[in-house]
Amino acid sequence: MVLAHGAGAPMDSEFMNEMTARLTRRGVRVIRFEFPYMAERRVTGKKRPPDRAPRLVEYFNQVLDKLGDGPVYIGGKSMGGRMATLVATGRNVAGVCVLGYPFHPPGKPEKTRLDHLPDVRCPVLICQGERDTLGNREQVEGYSLPKAITLDWCPDGDHSLKPRKASGISHADNLDLAADAIAGFIGV
């Protein structure tokens, strides 16, 4: 599975490292990469926002081109997962796995990011926190999503799938739930 990072954290963030370790233990081979704006941050130390979606999608496709033929699953954390769904509108991949889909921008639930989803050419698994501020359970269950999309809800999880302490669930529990869902989706 080719796994892309989110908008504000690199491919070796704690979240990405934790998910990669969990997926690897379940038999999923994970390849991570960084979009150019994030790679530039490593060199300059200067934070800047992500490039626009067309450039990110183009770069994601370049990464996939280097892998050659064969079925591959793609996905990512938040923005990286959204870019994977955009890639899957124009490229044949085995499936897409998203960890915290950004259904809308922060604080703007009226500006949904759903228009391209009917054009995705493969099955999609979205592991979403129930109280994700970029698409909580109540909001998302009100959307008319394509049948190819499966939602796997992480109890009391936020955008990083982290629950509140009072829930009695740990972040590790939710990360394990997501890793199990992805491994099952891929079929390993």
Task: Write a structural description.
This protein is of the alpha/beta class and 188 residues long. It has a single domain (2-186), classed as Alpha/Beta hydrolase fold, catalytic domain (Rossmann fold), CATH 3.40.50.1820. It is built from 6 helices and 6 strands. It has helices spanning 14-25, 36-44, 53-67, 79-87, 137-141, 171-186, and strands at 2-4, 31-33, 73-77, 95-99, 124-129, 149-154. It has a 6-stranded parallel β-sheet with strand order 2-1-3-4-5-6, sandwiched between helices. Helix 1 crosses helix 6. The termini are close together.
Beginning-to-end CA distance, first to last residue: 12 Å
Helix content: 25-40%
Strand order of the largest sheet: 2-1-3-4-5-6
As a whole number of angstroms, the C-alpha radius of gyration is: 15 Å
The CATH topology label is Rossmann fold
Shape: globular
In the CATH hierarchy, the architecture is 3-Layer(aba) Sandwich
How large is the count of helical segments?
6
Runs in which pLDDT lies below 50 for 5 or more consecutive residues are none
Helix and strand composition category: alpha/beta
- Name the CATH class: Alpha Beta
Mean pLDDT: 96
Largest sheet: 6 strands, parallel
Element order: H for helix, E for strand: EHEHHEHEEHEH
Q: Percent of residues in beta strands? A: 5-15%
CATH evolutionary superfamily: Alpha/Beta hydrolase fold, catalytic domain
Number of self-contained structural domains: 1
Number of strands: 6
